[in-house]
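Human: If only I could read backbone structure tokens as easily as an amino acid sequence. Take your time, and here it is.
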Amino acid sequence: MCSKEEEESERIVRLAGKLIAAGIRDLDVGTDVYPSAEDVSDSLSDKGTGKWAPHLLVVFLKELVSSRVKVNALSQCIVQAARPQTAVLPVPLSVTVSIDNVCGSSELIIESARLGLCVSYDELLRFKQSVIVTRDNVIRTVSLLLVLHICPVMMSVNRCRHHSLHSSLQIM
């Protein structure tokens, strides 16, 4: 049987969880535009997670983990795990792309996504097929083969749009 003190502690933790969950739901992130390489580096820097994680989640994680980079990465993984169909965050996406580039293992990506450590394999495939839009809004199509090998570089140059290459081709 739990003591009154344990029950009160559990109640407080559950309330904190509800507040954090509400913050995650209200977060203004989506799947319409993929994060850029700049977003990845900014989101892991000491300046903060701002746009990628709710403040209360960051405050909570700071109580558990001393490293700011780990707090930022963990907070993004938690948000991604809580909103797998409605958000694509920089760290989980870059982890997925890295696993694919280093190992090429769909099984490792699938298992890591199941554990909440990266985005799904299907999301990786959509990312690879995406169209690149330059700052001038000139649409250029890129072959899937090219995307497979230079996608991390492309992320630093342009933002990848979340549209299938096959459904969004435009003849110039």
